[in-house]
Amino acid sequence: MDALKKGFSMAREGVVAAAEKTKAGVEEAAAKTKEGVMYVGTKTKEGVVTSVNTVAQKTTEQANLASDAAVAGANQVSEKAVEGLESVVASTGLVKPGEMPKQEGAVEQPADAGQ
């Protein structure tokens, strides 16, 4: 009977030692897993910030291109409107075609504007 007790005691000690090593192993694995998850989270956050900044920059660039195109379009429309008005004024005889100034960007005031 003593041999059985001694054998069971040795087996129990072995199980306790294995359980303690397993516990330590699990704790170490949990710590490493936590480190890995935190690292991935940090890198993902950095990647998201970089992506958001890139999208914001591209959006700004596109908005600038769109506004430049809108200004160019408005300038073309205003030029055509002025040309149309010049044609109307010339065709009604209010101003002779040779009297119309052809200065780009400058608007002349009529001679009698202050009277």
UniProtKB/TrEMBL annotation:
Keywords: Repeat. One of its GO terms (biological process) is synaptic vesicle endocytosis. Residues 93-115 are annotated as: Disordered. It comes from the Eukaryota. One of its GO terms (molecular function) is cuprous ion binding. InterPro entries: Synuclein, Synuclein_gamma. May be a centrosome-associated protein. Interacts with MYOC; affects its secretion and its aggregation. PANTHER family: GAMMA-SYNUCLEIN, SYNUCLEIN. This is Gamma-synuclein. It comes from Carassius auratus (Goldfish).
